[in-house]
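Hi R.,

Here's the chain you asked about this morning:
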Amino acid sequence: MQGEWQQDSIPGQKQLVTYSLYHLKFSCDSFFMAINSYSKVNNGPDTCMNSGHWAEYAKGTYDQRHDTLHLKGQFCNADMTIKDDKGCFRSGDYEEFFKVAKKTDSLVQFASTSNVIPVNAHLVKRTSCHPKPI
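And the predicted structure, written out as C-alpha cells:
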C-alpha cells in the first residue's frame, strides 16, 4: 500500500448527478486522502460548493488485515491542519473500511463498505516506509 494512489475517473461519471474521485497517500502506518467531489446540483452555499466542485481531506492511521483496509482519522484542511467544525462540509472523525483487491501491480480497487461505487486507483508514486525512532 505504500505510496500514492490516484482515481482518475469512474465508469459513467458523466451520467451521475454527484460523484467523488480519490487521491490516497500511504506512508508507514499513516494516510492522507483528498476527496474531490463533483455535483450537477447545488445542495449548499456556493461558497462551499464552488460551482459544483469541492475538495475534502482526511488524515490518520490505517491498518490492513488480509483484504480489509481500515482508515481512522480526522477531516483536515489541505495543509493537514485539523479542520474547524464551522467550515464547509464534514469535520471531526473520519472512519472507513474498504475491501482491497489488487488488480495489477499498479492498479488497486478499494470497495467501500458505505459506498456502491468502488475506487479504482492507479499507482502514482511508490514509496517505502522509513520508521523514525521515538
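Residues 2 and 26 are 5 Å apart (CA to CA).

Let me know if you need anything else.
M.
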